[in-house]
Each structure stands twice: as C-alpha cells, then as structure tokens.
Design brief:
Four copies of one chain form a homotetramer. Chain A is α+β, with helices and mostly antiparallel strands and 140 residues long. Chain A has helices spanning 27-43, 48-55, 133-138; strands at residues 6-12, 62-69, 78-88, 93-101, 104-113, 115-119, 125-129.
C-alpha cells in the first residue's frame, strides 16, 4: 500500500486578501492552492525548475478546479493547508487541499493538473503531454 | 417556461493576470467570475448595495465553486464572458459562466452562492439566510 | 510644441479590489496603472507584442513608481483614468496617471519605465537598453 | 537617541506573483509592503484589531507610497523584507521597506500612512484623525 503524498504549510491571511464583508475574497484560496501544489511538487524533488530543465515542461496547468467553502477566514487568521496527491492518470494528477484554522475546517479544494510544453506548430500554443515517468513515480 | 437570466460582458486580459508560462494565472478567472456575478445581479436590480440596504445582506458568499479549462488565454486577449443563473434553491443560487475568445471556448465556471448576514451571537460571525423572495423573483 | 500623449480609460472597481475597510486595497491602483500604461503604449502603435517582435524587448519594466491618494474609491465606482507621457530620457520614459470619480480626484500615480531585454550572459537575467528611436518617436 | 523600530519577515515569491517576463509583477511588492507594515504594527502591540477596538480606527490608510526597483525577483525566490518606522508627524507615520535576496537589493519602498475613522457626517465616508498617543509611543 502506498503512503499518501502530503504536504502541509501555513497561510497567513492578509488585509488585502479580504473583501468589504471582512472575509477572504474567495479567488485567493485558489491562489493559495496553487502555491501549495508548487510546494508539494518541490517537496518531491519536482520543482517547476526541475520539470522545466528535465522535461521542457513550461507549467503544470489546470484542467479542472473546484472548492467547497465551509467557514469563512479573516484577516490575521493563520490557516493550516494540507495538500495531498489524489488520482493519477497517464496525463493528469490531482491535488486535494484542506484548509483549517485550528480544528475548524475552512475549505476543501481540488486541482486536476497536466503537464504542458510549448507547441511549436502553433504560434504561442501549448500542448499537454503524458506525465513523465519520474514525475509519476515521485507522486505515488 | 422562464427565460434564462443571462448577462454578457467583456474581459480584457492584463499583463499582470498572466504567469511566467504566458497564460492567465487561473485564480484570476475566479476573480472575473465574481465580477460577472455581481454584474448579473446588478442587471437584475439586485446590486450589492440594494441587497445590503433592503435585506441587510453583507455578501452573496460562495459555498461551491468550480472551473474547467479548455484553452489558455493570454495577455491582450479580449474574452466574452457569458453568465447565467442556473439552479435556484431556498438558500442558494447558482451562476454558470462560459468564457470565449471569438469562437474558442476558454473555460466554464460555476458558483453556488448564498445570502449572508452578520451573526450577532458570535463575534464577527456570519450566517446564511434563505434567499429573499424578491431576489428569487429577480433570478427566474 | 509637442502635443502631450495621453490615453483615457475607465476602471470599474470590483468587490475583490476592496478591503475590509470597504475601500480599494491600494496595490490594485498600481495594477491599474500598469494596465493604463500598456493601453497607452498600444494606442501609440507600441503594444507589448510589437515591442517584443521588433526590438526583442521582454517588458517595459519599472524603475521608480509612486502614488498619492487623495480620496478613497469603493466597490462599483467607475473611475476615469487619464495617463500621460511625462519625462523622456535616453533610457526611460515616465507615465503619469490621474484617477477621478466624476470631478473628485482619487489618486495620482507615476511610473518610470525602461526597456528590458534578456541578458544572455547571466542565467535568466535581464538588462536595460536605450529606448528604441521608434518608441521615443511614438511617445513625443 | 531612540532605537529604530524595525521588523523583518520572509517573502516567498509565488508562481502567480510573476508575469510573462518571468519576474514579479510590481504591484505585488506593494501588497507585500502592506503585509509588512501590518506585521510591524502588530509586533509593537498595535495590530489592526487593537487599533480598531481601542481607537475606532478602521484602517491605517495610505497617503503616499513609492518604490524603487533595483533588481528583479523571480518565482521561488525567498526575499528578506526589512521594514522600519521613518518620519512621524501628528497625523502620519512612514514605513520604509528594503527587500533583499541574500545580499542583492531587490527594491526599496515607502508608505506614508494615517489613521482613519468612519465619518458619520458623510454616507460611507472616512476621515483622518491625529495619531493616538499610544500609537505614537509604540512607534518611537
């Protein structure tokens, strides 16, 4: 049985992350999801720089994303963000996030990501490639 | 049969909306979804100000959100954002978004929103209320 | 006497642009200054794409910036942003911004920008170049 | 001679903080300046919450701001942000910031801030007040 790949980090909610209702403006949670996913990949030896230098990947772009919000977060809250690798396919990996303030769950999030390289056949285009074996190995 | 409630607006992709891969950093799509939902509500006579003054609502907060990305958008793209009221329940309404650049679909999005008021029983808390009848009427 | 190069555009203040005090979180003004400068350059035939394709410029990066705030702006305000080319030197151009809501001045801003190209001698570095003559001509 | 009031924190540059040129989109530096100023105030016992509860202050809003950029920062850089109280007047205090990556200076910044309370005479207005003595004492 494989051990789940997880990564935990802290998020400090800033003044400018909150809206006139005094709670986090929700797109910021996705900004934090993205930072958590980068940190998780880096913790597995698969930083953006490594993916770029070794496989020519310009980014682990998003295919599907979602979030469910259960309790608001506010300025000066320190959130614990736990991120975990979920489903792996040939072409995608899923990162599942749970944010908590103490024992209170703030939100859950999900990102389905693929690996993208420059597509020389179309000006400025990008195209998805299969996950490199090394990346797959690092995520399971 | 009710006519679907829709609203269309244009989004100009800015330099700072894009990441080092040259494409829109995805949380910005959610920022635009939020702006589209506010504009749709305003177009139905239910601006934030109206909701606040008439019903004491401090925000139409998010319960669930999601987005599916089909094609990247870049700096200087002008996107057409079409937003539509989907499912209505006693306590929630759903806004469905489709972003296109010309005939190319960029992404779809979904926001399930409720109406929140200040909860005096808990310091700084908020609580969901049933959608006011006038708001329900405006959205169908 | 040269006619001043100016460009005017509208800015709609979004819900997420404002902070818990209900006013624009000030870094967003700089985000708008940047968008205004890009629009001004584009209006003079010097879009980012043109600068990149013709001169290899990867960005008109910032050297100095500043803003003075005179009156707060709020959600749903529509601001008029007037941007003007100020001082031109061999290596820099200045863009001066004034934001107003009706006759009320909200803020003034200033950006001193240079032209940057990739510096092959240092991994990932950038270096400033003299303004191309065509750009100088377009800005005076 | 008074000891300078300073505060140091680390800033991790995120993927979404950078633009298509691969460097930090400059308004994000102002977002970080704001976070640094809040942290400095908190370190002096003058958190936003304290200022609000004790003096009715809704925010330490900006009057003047500026930044000078000397070297670009990139994704995954960890910056040291040093913030220092500068000039104090009856109605304003200045925060001076220096950001470095190792020994390389990235930028300097300056924020002139005042204390604002709700202005009941004008709907939704705010007005500046003199700095409370306790705040002045905490900043020198």
């Amino acid at each position: 049985m494989s051990t789940a790949i997880t990564h935990v980090r802290q998020i400090e909610v800033g003044w400018g992350d909150c809206d006139p209702a005094g709670i986090v403006f929700y797109p910021n949670f996705y900004r934090w999801f993205d930072a958590c996913s980068h940190a998780l990949l880096t913790s597995r030896g698969m930083s953006h720089r490594t993916l770029n230098e070794r496989f020519g990947i310009i980014g682990c772009g998003l295919i599907d994303t979602g979030a469910h919000f259960t309790s608001p977060a506010r300025f000066d809250d320190v959130l614990e963000a736990e991120s975990r690798i979920g489903k792996l396919t040939n072409r995608t990996f899923t990162v599942e996030h749970v944010f908590r303030r103490g024992t209170v769950q703030i939100c859950t999030g999900l990102e389905v990501r693929g690996c993208f390289v420059a597509d020389d056949s179309i000006s400025g285009g990008i195209k998805a490639i299969a996950l490199p074996d090394e990346l797959r190995a690092a995520l399971q």
